[in-house]
Design a protein that fits this description.
Elements: H1 2-39, E1 53-54, E2 61-62, H2 63-74, E3 113-120, H3 125-133, H4 137-153, H5 155-162, E4 166-169, H6 174-180, H7 184-196, E5 204-206, H8 216-223, E6 227-229, H9 231-242, E7 247-257, H10 261-280, E8 287-298
Parallel strand pairs: 3-8, 4-7, 7-8
Antiparallel strand pairs: 1-2, 5-6
Helix pairs in contact: 8-10, 9-10
């Protein structure tokens, strides 16, 4: 009995020490953020411009970038699939726009809709690539701060997440984990999970093939050997959600929307496996809707 009490006491002491360490690290992070704001160069976090800078997010941003972000989401007519702005007289035919029409070559798009958070162009490309490939905590905090600002201005994005059942994200291979030590889609998914009280389930895996500068059509073919799905995990999720709903809404998170081929292939992979699982479970009435959310969207001609 005494041994058990001693063990419980030791465990509680260790938990207390770990909690104290966590609080110290959070405090240090806050102090570092404040020091950065005081001593760092007064330049825009997106484009490094030093002229006409505002600090409405507790991070410096130039008015040009701020206006771009506001305009990016104030456009009334966006393509459902690549979120590219469309002309007011554009007749929408569910085949995408000229920017993403390749997704509909001999097939349909497998995701219902995509929303992108920020534009990616020549002025902010270097900072965004750094956020994608290298763990830049300051820039990640900026993305989260600006996300909160955009969510506060756009109810349709908030509803996009509150109406979904769960979140998943584009996976990262073991090799990339070693090289990069983190995954931007995974970190951002955790932020969204806390923000909207939605579970994140990692249902995809990546083999770790490397490709660059491929044509749009080639990317889709390469993805077939690159990404895989955890079918048993997905089966358990479907059984869980089927208990109280006959509809499943899933959002896939990715960092950058360039061609849309990765999101489209993962959606196809998810859809085809769900159909197989429903057949195995003898479930007939069950609707699946797959959505996408990307942190950045490549601006045309950039």
């Amino acid at each position: 009995m005494k041994k058990n009490n001693l063990r419980v006491t030791k465990i509680n002491i260790i938990k207390g020490i770990l909690l104290a360490i966590k609080k110290i690290f959070l405090l240090i992070n806050k102090i570092i953020d404040k020091l950065i704001l005081i001593y760092a160069d007064n330049k825009c976090f997106l484009c490094n411009n030093k002229d006409k800078v505002s600090s409405i997010f507790n991070f410096s941003i130039c008015f040009d970038c701020l206006n771009k972000i506001i305009a990016f989401h104030d456009i009334k007519n966006n393509c459902n699939f690549c979120y590219h702005p469309l002309p007011n007289n554009f007749i929408y035919n569910q085949k995408g726009c000229s920017n993403c029409s390749h997704l509909f070559t001999n097939k349909t798009s497998f995701f219902v809709k995509n929303i992108s958070l920020l534009p990616l162009d020549y002025s902010n490309r270097d900072n965004i690539i750094e956020a994608k490939y290298y763990k830049n905590d300051i820039y990640l905090k900026y993305i989260i701060a600006i996300s909160n600002y955009i969510f506060s201005r756009n109810d349709h994005i908030v509803k996009y997440f509150t109406n979904c059942d769960f979140i998943t994200c584009v996976p990262i291979s073991f090799r990339k984990k070693i090289l990069r030590a983190y995954s931007l889609p995974q970190i951002y998914s955790k932020f969204l999970s806390k923000k909207f009280n939605k579970k994140v389930y990692n249902i995809f895996t990546e083999k770790g093939l490397k490709y660059t500068h491929l044509k749009k059509e080639s990317r889709f073919e390469i993805d077939k050997d690159r990404y895989f799905l955890k079918k048993n995990k997905l089966k358990k999720l479907i059984q869980k959600f089927f208990q109280y709903s006959k509809e499943l809404k899933i959002i896939i998170i990715d960092d950058i929307f360039t061609t849309g081929s990765t999101i489209n292939y993962l959606s196809e992979l998810l859809e085809s496996n769900i159909k197989e699982i429903l057949k195995e479970l003898n479930i007939n009435e069950f609707t699946i809707n797959i959505y996408a959310f990307t942190i950045f969207r490549k601006v045309k001609n950039s």
